[in-house]
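sry for the spam today, last one i promise. C-alpha cells for design, 432 residues
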C-alpha cells in the first residue's frame, strides 16, 4: 500500500509541475496518471486487488463522486444556473442523454446477451455521462461559438448528477449493495431507490440553502476569513453526503442538489449585498446589474477554489486506479467490449445529440461537433467501481469494470488529440 500511495503522490505532483507544458503538448493529467498507475500495476504485486475490491475503497469512491457532483453543480456558467442557452442545455440533458442511455442499453443487450437487463442498465448509466474535467481546455477554445461551449459546460456539469438516481435504481434492481436493498423485482427496487432519492433531495435543498445563507450572513457581518469560507464550501458536499446516508438517503443526489441550492442562494445574496453597496453610485440599471453580476461571480470563484482543487486531486487518483486496472484487465478484454466502447464513444452519443438538436438554430457543424465532444471521465470511473463492488455476481461485475476502463482509456485517446483535430477540420471558427 505504501509504494502505491507514494507513486500516486509523485504522479500528481509531476503532472502539476508540468501542467502548462503538458497542456501545450495536448497531454492532460489523466494520461500521466494512467501511465503511472500502469507502472504500479506491473511492478507492485496485488495493487489491483487492494484498490478495486474492498469496502473501504467503495466508500472512498462514493465520497469522491459526491464531491465531484457538488463541484459540477457549483461551477460558474456565465453567472446563470442553466447557462446562457437554457433551451439547448435542456435538450441535451432531457432528450439527448435519455436517448443515448437507451441506445447504449439496446446495443449492450445485443453484444452481451448473457447479462441481465438490470446489469445492462447499470452499464448504460456508467458509460454514457460525459465529463469535460479531463479536457477542460475544450470549453475555453475560442474557436467554438459561445453558446456551444455554454451548452456543453452545463451538460457536462449536470448529466452525471441526473443519471445517479437511475444508476442507484438499476443497481438495486440487480440486487446490488444499496442501502436497504433486498429486491426481487422492479417494484422492490423502485421502493428502495425512490424514497432514498426524495430524502436526498430534501437534505440537499435544506443544507445547500442553509449553508449558502449562513456563509453570506457570516461574511456580511465580518465573521469569516477567506480561508474559512473556502473550508465551508469544501465541507458542504461531505456534510450533504453524510447527512443523507444517516437518514437512509442517496448521498450522490444530496451532494448534487446541495451544490445547486448552495450556489443559487449564495450568488443571490452576494449580488444583493453588492447592489446595496452600489445604490449611491450614478450608474444606469443595466450597467449596475452587469457590474453586480460580474462581482458576484468573481467572489464565488474565489470561494470555490479550494473544493475545485481538491476535486482535481481526487479525480487524478481515480485515473491512477484506471491505470492499475488496465494492466490487470488488458489480457481479458474481448472483441464485444471493444466494439461496444467504440460505439459508446461515437455513434451512441452523436446520433441522440443530432436528434435532440433538430429544429434549433444551431448549424449542422455545431450539432455534429456537440456530438463528437463527449469525453468520459471521473464519473464513469467511480460509477464503474461502485458497480464492480456492488453487483452480487462476479462475472457481470468484471465485465462492467473491463468496459469502464476500456471506455475511459478510449476517451483519453479519442478526445485528447482528436478534439483539436475535429474543431480544426469542421472549421467552426468561420461559423458565426
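last one done:
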Amino acid at each position: 500500500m505504501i509504494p502505491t500511495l507514494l507513486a500516486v503522490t509523485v504522479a500528481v505532483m509531476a503532472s502539476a509541475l508540468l501542467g502548462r507544458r503538458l497542456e501545450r503538448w495536448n497531454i492532460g493529467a489523466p494520461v500521466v496518471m494512467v501511465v503511472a498507475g500502469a507502472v504500479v500495476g506491473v511492478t507492485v504485486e496485488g495493487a489491483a486487488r487492494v484498490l478495486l475490491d474492498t469496502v473501504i475503497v467503495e466508500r472512498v469512491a462514493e465520497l469522491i463522486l459526491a464531491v465531484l457532483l457538488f463541484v459540477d453543480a457549483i461551477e460558474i456558467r456565465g453567472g446563470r444556473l442553466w447557462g446562457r442557452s437554457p433551451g439547448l442545455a435542456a435538450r441535451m440533458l432531457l432528450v439527448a442523454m435519455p436517448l443515448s442511455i437507451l441506445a447504449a442499453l439496446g446495443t449492450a443487450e445485443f453484444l452481451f446477451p448473457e447479462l441481465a437487463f438490470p446489469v445492462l442498465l447499470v452499464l448504460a448509466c456508467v458509460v454514457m455521462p460525459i465529463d469535460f474535467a479531463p479536457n477542460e481546455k475544450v470549453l475555453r477554445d475560442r474557436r467554438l461559438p459561445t453558446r456551444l461551449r455554454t451548452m456543453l459546460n452545463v451538460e457536462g456539469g449536470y448529466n452525471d448528477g441526473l443519471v445517479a438516481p437511475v444508476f442507484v435504481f438499476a443497481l438495486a434492481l440487480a440486487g446490488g449493495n444499496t442501502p436497504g436493498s433486498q429486491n426481487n423485482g422492479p417494484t422492490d427496487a423502485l421502493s428502495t431507490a425512490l424514497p432514498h432519492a426524495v430524502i436526498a433531495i430534501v437534505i440537499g435543498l435544506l443544507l445547500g440553502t442553509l449553508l449558502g445563507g449562513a456563509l453570506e450572513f457570516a461574511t456580511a457581518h465580518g465573521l469569516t476569513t477567506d480561508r474559512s469560507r473556502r473550508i465551508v464550501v469544501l465541507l458542504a458536499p461531505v456534510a450533504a453526503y453524510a447527512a443523507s446516508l444517516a437518514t437512509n438517503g442517496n448521498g450522490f443526489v444530496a451532494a448534487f442538489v446541495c451544490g445547486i441550492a448552495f450556489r443559487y442562494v449564495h450568488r443571490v445574496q452576494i449580488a444583493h449585498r453588492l447592489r446595496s453597496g452600489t445604490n449611491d453610485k450614478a450608474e444606469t440599471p443595466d450597467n449596475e446589474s452587469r457590474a453586480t453580476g460580474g462581482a458576484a461571480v468573481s467572489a464565488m470563484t474565489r470561494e470555490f477554489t479550494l473544493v475545485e482543487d481538491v476535486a482535481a486531486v481526487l479525480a487524478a487518483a481515480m485515473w491512477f486506479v484506471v491505470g492499475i486496472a488496465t494492466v490487470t484487465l488488458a489480457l481479458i478484454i474481448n472483441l464485444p467490449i471493444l466494439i461496444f466502447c467504440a460505439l459508446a464513444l461515437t455513434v451512441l452519443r452523436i446520433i441522440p445529440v443530432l436528434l435532440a438538436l433538430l429544429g434549433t438554430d444551431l448549424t449542422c457543424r455545431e450539432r455534429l461537433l456537440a456530438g463528437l465532444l463527449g469525453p468520459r471521465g471521473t464519473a464513469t470511473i467511480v460509477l464503474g467501481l461502485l458497480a464492480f463492488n456492488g453487483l452480487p455476481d462476479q462475472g457481470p461485475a468484471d465485465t462492467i469494470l473491463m468496459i469502464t476502463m476500456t471506455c475511459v482509456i478510449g476517451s483519453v485517446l479519442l478526445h485528447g488529440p482528436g478534439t483539436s483535430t475535429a474543431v480544426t477540420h469542421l472549421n467552426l471558427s468561420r461559423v458565426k
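DSSP finds 19 helices and no strands in the chain. ok im logging off now
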